[in-house]
Amino acid sequence: MDLIPQQLKAVTLTHVRYRPGDQLGHFLAWISLVPVFISLGGFVSHFLFRRELQGIFFGIGLVISQFINEFIKRSVEQARPETCTLLEACDSHGWPSSHSQFMFFFATYFSLMGCKGIGFWFGLRSRWIMNLLHWSLALVTMYSRVYLGYHTVAQVFAGATLGGVVGASWFWFVNSVLYPFFPVIEESVLGRWLYVKDTSHIPDVLKFEYDNARAARKDMDSAKSD
């Protein structure tokens, strides 16, 4: 049995390093984890509690985007900057940045959903606020990958560009090609079993669900009193 210690590889899902005492680096390290929070917290909880087809295909598009990113990385094989030695990240390629690609896909798709009035929109002002929030997160995430030393400027810009293009293309595909099949998916055996639905045709989903929840409660109270 070989007793010589071998170099170990870490699971890098939440493995982000920064310089000790660097408060900005500490903050940016958390920002660079936003894609993880969106994936695990956002889309998993969305499927468990909402099961909207628009949200499901949004998540599928992000997964496809990341597969495209990994394919390009392995094809191009461009190294990360020299700081990868300190970060223990030299065993993976750097072009294009997957974090930047994820966030710009997310921001692009989310903005297009807002332009089309899909989702929980409370008016034009709230739409601008939401757009400002996720585009700011996308830009800060892109900056964090350079500041922390995981990528070069060219690598994050390549990821951002690819994320925007793939995000816009996937949005068009979902809402032009797949959308006519949403009723078929809803009424399929699997769709009915999983309770998937599409509410993108409802102008104000929040108010619609609020009114229906109140009406159902009133009907229940009336039934109990009879």
Q: What does it look like?
A:
- The protein is mostly helical and 226 residues long.
- Helices cover 69% and strands 0% of the residues.
- The chain is built from ten helices and no strands.
- α1 crosses α6 and α5 runs antiparallel to α6.
- The longest helix is centred in the last third of the chain and has 26 residues.
- The chain is elongated and about 75 Å long.
- It starts with 22 loop residues before the first helix and ends with a helix.
- The mean pLDDT is 81.
Structural key phrases:
226 residues; mainly alpha; 69% helix
Main sheet properties: none
General form: elongated
| Whole-number mean pLDDT | 81
Oligomer: single chain
**How many alpha or pi helices?**
10
Total strands: 0
User: What is the strand content?
Assistant: under 5%
Summarize the structure.
The chain is mostly helical and 226 residues long.
Q: Which helices and strands occur, and which strands form pairs?
A:
Blueprint: H1 23-31, H2 34-49, H3 53-76, H4 84-87, H5 98-116, H6 124-147, H7 153-178, H8 182-187, H9 189-194, H10 205-225
Helix pairs in contact: 1-6, 3-5, 3-7, 5-6, 5-7, 6-7
